[in-house]
Structure formats: C-alpha cells, structure tokens
Amino acid sequence: MKTRQVLVNLFQACNGGRSVSQLHSQLFKTGILNDSFFATKLNSLYSKFVSLQAARKVFDETLHPSVHLWNSTLRSYCREKQWEETLRLFHLMLCTAEGAPDNFTIPIALKACAGLRMIELGRVIHGFAKKNDKIGSDLFVGSALVELYSKCGQMGKALKVFEEFPQPDTVLWTSMVTGYQQNNNPEEALTLFSQMVMMDSFVLDPVTLVSVVSACTQLSNVKAGSCVHGLVLRRGFDSDLPLVNSLLNLYAKTGCDKIAANLFSKMPEKDVISWSTMIACNANNEAANEALNLFNEMIERRLEPNSVTVVSALQACVVSRNLEEGKKIHKIAARKHIELEFSVSTTLLDMYMKCSCPDEAVDLFQRLPKKDVVSWVALLSGYAQNGMAYKSMGVFRDMLSDGIQPDAVAVVKILAASSELGIFQQALCLHGYVVRSGFNSNVFVGASLIELYSKCGGLGDAVKLFKGMILRDVVIWSSMIAAYGIHGRGGEALEIFDQMVKNSNIRPNNVTFLSILSACSHAGLVEEGLKIFDMMEHDYQLQPDSEHFGIMVDLLGRIGRLGKAMDIINRMPIPPGPHVWGALLGACRIHHNIEMGEVAAKNLFWLDPTHAGYYILLSNIYAVDGKWDNVAELRTLIKDRGLKKMFGRSMVEVRGEVHSFLAGDRFHPDYQKIYELLRKLEVQMGKEVYIPDLDFLLHDKEAILQF
Length: 707
What we know:
It is built from 40 helices and two strands. The chain is 71% helix and 2% strand. The relative contact order is 0.03. Strand 1 (649-654) and strand 2 form a beta hairpin. The protein is mostly helical.
C-alpha cells in the first residue's frame, strides 16, 4: 500500500518525458504494470510529454484495459484531431471491451464525428446514448450532441437536444450560443445569451463571452459589444487572452481602430492572434505604415507570424505600394514554408501586381503546385491593373484550358479587363459567354457588362441592357450612372440618379455616390457635384472615403479652385491616399501652381515611392517654369531608384482585327504608313491654325523637344 502511494505521488510530480520513462521502468520492476489505474496514468503522461505512439503502446501492452484506459487513449487521439483513428478505436472498444462505453466515452466519439461532419454515425451514437439513462441525461453528452448537430448545420436538432435538459449548465448553454454564432445566426445567439443571464443558476464563463462577442462582431453591433466589454471588466475576465482577442477583433472590424489600438496597448499578454488582428485593423483602415511597423515590431520580438499575419502585412504593402517591405515579407513566408499556401500566394500575387512587378508575380504563379480559380483571377486582374489587359484574355483562355471553371468573381474580372481594351467585338463575345454559362442573372456580372459596353463605345447597348433588367439593385443603378459619366454625359447621369432616388426603393450607397460624383467631374458640373457630396453626408449619413474626397479634389482642380480642393483635403477625417494627392498634383500641373504641387508631390513620394508617374508630373511642372535644376534632380532620382514609367497603350479595332500601339511605336508592320498619315495630319492641322499645347512636354535643359 505504501509503495502504491509513493507511485501516486511520483505520478503527480512527473513533468517531462524523462521522468515518464523512469516511472514506466519503476512500474515494470514492481510488477504492477498491468494495474489499470497506473496504466491509465502512464498512458496520459506519455500522450502529454512524449508522443501519441508511446501512449498507444502502453494501451496495446495492457492485457485487460479498463474503460478509463480506453477513454484516456481515445481522448489523446481526439486532442490531436486524429478523428478517424478515434472512431476506429471507439469501434474496437464496442466490439472487444469488457466494459461498455460510459458518459466520458460518448462525448469523445461525438466530438470525432463533429470533426469529420459524420452526422449519420453521430445519430447512431446519439441513439446508443438515449438507451442508457445515465449517459443520455449527462450534461457533457448533451453538450457534445449540441456541438455535433451545430457543426453539421442542424441547429433545429441541436435545439431539440438542448430542450431535453431541464437544467442546462454553463457548458451546454455555451454550446448552443456558439452553435448559433458559428451558423451565421448571431441574433439568435444574443437572444439565447440574454435568456442565459436571467437564469438563477447562471455562471458567467469567458468561453461563452467569446461567442457572444463574435456574434456582436457579425452584426457590427459595437454598442452590444461594448456592454459585453464592460461585463468582462466587472467580472475580472480582462486577463483572459482569447476573450480579449475577440474584443480586439470586434473593434478592429467595426471601424473602431482607436479603441482597438488602446485595448491592444493595454493588453498584458499578446499572442500571434492579437498581433495579426491589429495589423489587419491598420491595413484595412488605410494605416498601412502603422500595420507594417507593428509587423516589424512583432518580428523583432521574435514572435513567429502565421499565414494570417503574413496575409495582413502583405495587404498593408498593397495599400501603401511598398514593394521593399513586400519582398521582405515574402522571404519570411518562404522561410516558414507558407509562401505556396493559397491565401499567402494569392496575396503575394496581388502585392507584386499592385506594385507594378508582374514578372515576379508570374514567376510565383508558375511555381504554384496547384492553382485554384482565385490564383488565376489574381494573375488575370493583375495584368489589367498593369496596363496589360490584352494578356488577361490569354490568361482566361489558359484557365479554361486547364479545366478551371470560372466563378462569378472571375467573370467580373475578365469583363473588367476587357473593358480596358475597349474592343466592341470582344464585348459581344464575352456577353455571349456570360449567357451560355448562366451568369447573366448575377447582378455584379450584369453591372460589369454595362461597364464593358460603355467603355467599348456601346453606350446604347449598355442602356438597352439596363432597361432589359427586371431586377435592378444598387449595383446596377450605380453602373448605369457610371456609364453615362464615362461618356461625359453628366446630365443623363444626374437624371438616372434622380430616378433611382425618387422612383425606386433603392437607397444609394457609397459606390453610387462615387459614380455620380465622377460623372459630375467628367462633365465639369462643379456646383452639382458639391450638392451631391453634401447630400451624401447630410441626407444619407454616409461617410465619404478617400476615393470620394479624391474625386472632389479632381472636380475642383479641373476648374482651378485649388484652394478649395486643399481645404477638402485638410478636413478629411482619414489620411489622404495617393489618388487624392495625385488628383491635386494633376490639377497643379494644369494650372501651373508649383508651391501646392510640391506639397502634393512630397506626400505622394512618401505614400507611393515607387510610382514613377508622380515624379514625372512634378518634373513637368518644373519644366514649364524653367526650373531645370529641379528637373535634372528628379530625373536622377528616377534613375537611381530604378523607377519606370508605364507606357500608355492604345488599341483600335479595324475589320475585326485589333491593332495595338505604344507611344513612338515602330514595331507595327505598317508603322511607316501610319507615320506618313500622321505627317499629313500635322500639315492639315497647321493649315487650320491649330496650335498644340507644348507646356506639358518634358523638356530637356539643353535641347527643347520640337513637336
């Protein structure tokens, strides 16, 4: 008896693989290795400190394992998410064990069924449990059944199980709340939680609150989430890391970035989830530099990022067009062997394309062992973003040849790429493909077709398509408004907007206002644009984003109201993005405002240092004013940084054949005839007293280029 107690004490003190092996040897020497109690303890310790295989060996060497040893071994497999082996062992137990499964065995088997989504086997085990009153009435079994049915999407069955328990405990309540939340029914999750807190036997648990906060996040209900946060503080749960991470995620995803940052700074403990959430929060709120600073701080603290962290950091690189940081993160991903994971590789493709490095993107794409539709779409849309939409069609054909069926997103992307080419015949072909493939009822595809026709000069076809649509949602209306705007027909765009607001139940959203403001900008309707912008803020309580402000700056800049444009930038509630400062810089070039142009350029060089176009724009402003030293300095900067201006490409469709041209192109087979015609046009223009505007040519200090 004394020896037994000594061994029990030694088991309790065991804290590593070496001590487990020593204990095993001691059991062997004392001859009580087949004692079920010690075999179970030994099995559990081997699983915890050594390996699952070592634990299984103890089980296999025990002649008559007790139900406790069976449960210990089953639990070890379940903990490692080896669901199939868990169920195989459970089946072996049913067939060979001397003792029947108990109320601890059944939850383990049900958890394995839930992991594999094996609903039918789960129902069989459920039937087995109901035949035994002790097992069927066990709260842990009830919680496992609720988890099984909820993970298989059968919340009705889960609720029926829940209602069979007259006095559910916290675990059972939590299983139901979590089930509703994970099945995208956050309203029911919060309703059930409200019922839970009214119960006399209610015991608050951090695990329950994680699901409640997640439900608030799904509903974007900051008010309810803040109330839960207050409850967390009052109950002293603010040191529970998973719970605080869920609160951090709530604030990050509901636009409360300052609250999220404050909470993050006060967290006594942070894990990779905390850092990833905060990096994503900054990346999604146009604070890319802060996101990258956080990522670098995380690396300096020797915290290992996971694929979610890497994706969020890469998205920050996309926003800021920070190629240098993107390449560093790529190296980290490669070192961790996650660069070819779908989420990471797709974001890397997007980053390289957005940073004007299509060659690196193509190299990565070709190394992918398996390409899904998302990978193909990233390459396809990336070419279009880099002014190579003509290559997008080739990628689309290769995707189809590879047996990849495009989804609605892929179709929208190829339509958008085709719209950059402006080839009407291609638009007709793609429209036919859309109809044959059954995508014509998709509103986003319909909106993209309207955009495609309008950009191919087929405004009439776009209008016909719009009028033929039975169901018009806000996406369709916005596309039609944008179509009129593209053709400079601001009046018709305003009429369509007026019809939408007054004669339909559709409420304009941020994209609608982006379309109508853009239409006003293209048509020079300044006063109308200002009224629309005011309507957006005050009548519809919509918060303008960086793109809306960019269009307003462009609208005012076109007519020379640069001071008013700068006022709009100064009152922006969010940091101005590159397109905002870019619009101001373009206006400064038109109206020869060097001082304000330098301010805009300074911000652009900080926000998007790899965009050669901004350097060239400022250089043009200096050239017009004869500041040749500044021009030379900028040219040197462009050369030293290896920046390249993306050449403009023109395309024209003649007799069903597409002809492509670059500025100064001499590769076209008929280039001599083309330049001969150009010279004739120059002569004709001279006769009609046309005076070209030479101000914006990039002059050289020693030799001014002649027209």
